[in-house]
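Example (one chain per record):
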Amino acid sequence: MKKILLAAIVSLTALNSFAQAKETTIEVRGVAKIDREIASYLIDFALSVEYGEIEGGKSFEDLKNAFFTKAKAAGFEESRFKEDKMGYQALQLYREGSLYTLETHSPEELLKAAKLADGGGVISITGTRLTFKGQTDNQKLFDAAFRNGKEKAAAIAKATNKKLGDVLMITDYTPLDEAAENYFHFKQVADEYFYLALKFAAE
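Predicted structure:
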């Protein structure tokens, strides 16, 4: 009896393995471009006593007053600059100084602010950044990526004389930030994409 039961189990396993071997699936990646809306532009200025040595050893207060006088003449009030002492320490400029960030919603104003820096390095731009508004229509991205993947799978099925069946698995590989930030250094911002891994049955 045990031998008969064992033989039946072996036969069932073999049939199941054969069925799996005959099963055909198509796996593709669906892609949708993310249309990011810019929320603001930021530009960071470093002022340091080390830089002041270029102009005859000026003190930090002298550098600071000169910078904000220049900024005001260009139309930027001192109140618009946010000081970041921790960010300054990250620059490894260990003498007295500080980092000041200006935020604007206008690319034209950003370029105007960039002119506050000088060629001698007394006023140095240490970073330029973009902030983006959070995604509000994730369903639209999902639908577009799914359609893209399904079209690819259908083309593969047709090329292999198969009929595209039901979707078997969907995996999202793209975490979406609520409000992402990107360093761009006055260059074109790279496109971002939403990805889905899709697995379809094929008959």
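Caption: Confidence is low (pLDDT under 50) at residues 1-21.
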